[in-house]
Amino acid sequence: MTKRIEPGDTVTIVLHSPREKCWGILDEISVTGVFLRGLDLNSFADWLRSVVHEEPFIGLNDLFFPTWRIERIDRDETAGPIQSLSEQVEQRTGHSVAELFGRSA
Q1: At what angle do helices 85-93 and 44-52 cross, to 10 degrees?
Q2: 23 occurs within a structural domain
Q3: How much is the pLDDT for 105?
Q4: Strand pairing partners for 40?
């Protein structure tokens, strides 16, 4: 039995119109849409590098996506030998995603 995606889970959201991918911690999911604390997936490597080097970085935001834009929501999980993005963050920074996102609030 697979676990449901719940608020507090780290997820990747795939959007359309325009096509985007975002990553972060799910705050709320409802019939109107999804609230996410995160960033555009294209910015992930730059964000992680800035955290590791303790440099300022703008890009971590509270985001809302209306239901009509959401194509897919995936839990950020390790797949075989490929680490989840969350695990990559923890390994490189020594901090959990929740700790880092809380610092950026």
Answers
A1: 20
A2: yes
A3: 40
A4: 22
